[in-house]
Every structure is written in structure tokens, then in C-alpha cells.
Here is the input.
Amino acid sequence: MKTITLEEPGRFSLSDTPEPPAPGEGEAQVKIHRVGICGTDIHAYRGTMPFFTYPVVPGHELGVEVVATGIGVSNVREGDRCSVEPYLNCGHCPMCRAGRTNACIELKVLGIHTDGGMRELINVPAHKLHPSSVLPYEHLALVETLGIGCHAVQRAGLAEGENILVVGAGPIGLTVMAFARLAGAQVYAMDLNAERLGFCRREMQVQGTFLAGKGEPVGELREMLDGSMPSVVFDATGYGPSMEASLHFVQPGGRLVYVGVWNGSIGIDDPELHRKELTIMASRNAPSDDFPLIINNLESGQLTVNSWITHRCRESELMEQFPAWLQPEAGLLKGVVSFAH
Here is the structure.
């Protein structure tokens, strides 16, 4: 079967590898139809992703078809279209017992800690499959991405009408905006890229945008929010200096949620933190319960992601096209790789 491997930073390979064995007890074998490209894949390609070792078969945003099931599987059957929950948790550590499987102490994520879905077939635990009879494979491949924003918004405990700022208007930032709007928040966006901010105004219907690196953002925020500041700031940049600066955008008593991951340490302005009595939290991945919720939101039309996909290619084209996707002028928002069968 065709398999794409990230051999080392900057180098993909396409090879023929053996098909997996028949699925074991509790497993399902799935045919990969679509694989989403996210910031994690880009950072891994550039060699800047923590928790990553090479070589590895990437791919954790998957739209798949069930082709076989093992003994004891009842939640899916052959022919089902599914999204894959790529978080392989142990099931017995304190976090798993508390229902916080996304923060499992022994967590392994497909395509990061273990080989993922950039191949024609893969066996996965059947309970990690979330079916939909309605959604196309492209949308099913985006469910995992949406889960990042869904969980971050839940972590923040947003109340209807709260003013919130999302720093970073890439795919993860967009997922936060989408679920913050569903929660009834007033959403503002900040980014270095004016085109992405235009997308936020057109497609995400945010209340206002701020071009980072221009002017004085704290003053602009106060002016736009009638003298106040956001009660919640989500930093989705995964960039240390931005994560440090986001502390200054939160109103006293507010919350700062780090959604993006930075491969290194960040500094905190402690007098500012204490003066404002802020709450700082991290948000990692998404728990299982979020996947059917997101699928329902997509099926009902409460969430729409058609305009998010800006780049597509076949698996045989990825090696040639991927470097061009990463150029600033390419305007990559979300890429999707399709596998021919």
C-alpha cells in the first residue's frame, strides 16, 4: 500500500509498505480517504514540533471508511464513513479515570508519537471512530481540528456576551472563533496577516480585527471595546513572544488560554499577572465526547468549513507541492491530501 513517511525535517518519502493484518479484537481497519494538514504537520516538517521523533508516518486528521471490524466491535460496521479520534490514551491513569483522556499521562497521538494515517489502510481502536452518514470525507478529516477549538472554549467556560480575543487566525484560531460564536461570545481576532483577518470578517463574522505589529494594540482594544478589555484571550499562535504579550490584552480577573504549543519556555510578567489576578490555563487536544458534538454541528449547518480548505492534492503530489504550500504567498489555510484507491 502507498505510504507517506516524514523521514526527517524537510523530507517526505512515498513508498510501498505491507498492508496491516486483519483487525484484532476491538479494532477496525479503515481505508484512508482524506488527510488534513495542520500546524503540527508543518512544524514537524520544519523540525520545530515538540513531542516529535523521526521517521514517522504523519497524519492525524482523518476522513476514513471502515473496511473490516474485529471481534466485539458494535459501534461501526463495514462501509461507515468516520472521523478518527487520534488520541490513543491508556485508560487507567489518573487523568483517564477522571474522564480527561486528552491529557492522558501515557498519551500517544497518531502521526506524532506513533505512525499515523498518511497511508491507504490503518487499524485503529474501534471506539476511536465517530461515524456520519451525511458528511463528506473532507469534512470528517477536519473534525479533529475543530475539536481543538471546541475544547479550548469549554476550558474557558465562556458566558454569553463575553468579549473575547483570539490571537492567531490560522486553522486553530478559526476553530476557537467558531465555537466561541456558538457560545454567544463577542469575538475579536488579531493576526499579522491582513488577508487572514479579512477571512475572519467575511467568513467568521467577528466583531472586529486587529493587525498585529501595527499601532498600539492595547489602546486599540480599549477603544473598540468601549474602554474595556477582553475577559478571555485565546492565544492560538504557538509563538512564544506572542504568548507572552497576550497577557497584556486580558482584563483584570480574566482568563488567558494557551491553545498553541511553543517548543520552549515563555516568560510571564508576574506583576501584571498578580495585579490583574488572572487565570492562565492550557488547552490540549479534545476529549472523546467532543467528536459527536462537532459532527452534529457540522451536519446541522451550525458549523461550516467549506471555505477553510484552500489547498488540495493527491498523495503522489504531496512531496512536490508541500514546500510551495508553506510559502507566504501561497495563502495556505487548510490543506487536504486525498488517497487514490
In short: Residues 148-282 form a domain with the Rossmann fold fold (CATH 3.40.50.720). The chain has two domains: 2-142+305-338, 148-282. The first helix runs from residue 39 to 46.
